[in-house]
Amino acid sequence: MMFSKMYQSHIANLSSPATFKFNGIKKDGKKVLFETDMIPITFMGHAIAYHFVRKK
């Protein structure tokens, strides 16, 4: 419920894609920088988002 409220108040109102960068940890313990493009869309009245993730 909290995630849904945060999404609706911060992400759903975006009119263009947003890019996020974050650090991940592989199974072997190595740190890896990732980047994701989040594309908000509406489908059948519901706010959803496509995410394209890539290693930086």
Structure description:
With 56 residues, the chain is an alpha+beta fold. It has one domain (2-55). It has 1 helix and 3 strands, in the order αβββ. The protein has one helix spanning 2-11, and strands spanning 18-25, 31-43, 46-55. The protein has a 3-stranded antiparallel beta sheet with strand order 1-2-3, with no helix packed on it.
Shape: elongated
What number of structural domains do the residues give?
A: 1
Unreliable residue stretches: none
Q: Could you report the average pLDDT, rounded to the nearest whole number?
A: 81
| Secondary structure tally, helices | 1
Largest sheet: 3 strands, antiparallel
- Biggest sheet strand line-up: 1-2-3
Strand content: over 45%
| Amount of helix | 10-25%
N/C terminus separation: 32 Å
Number of E-type strands: 3
- What class would the helix/strand composition place it in? alpha+beta
What's the gyration radius in Å? 14 Å
The SSE order reads: HEEE
Short note summarizing the structure:
With 56 residues, the protein is an alpha+beta fold. It is built from one helix and three strands, in the order αβββ.
Descriptors:
single chain; 56 residues; alpha+beta; three-stranded antiparallel β-sheet; 18% helix; elongated
Write the layout of secondary structure elements.
Blueprint: H1 2-11, E1 18-25, E2 31-43, E3 46-55
Antiparallel strand pairs: 1-2, 2-3
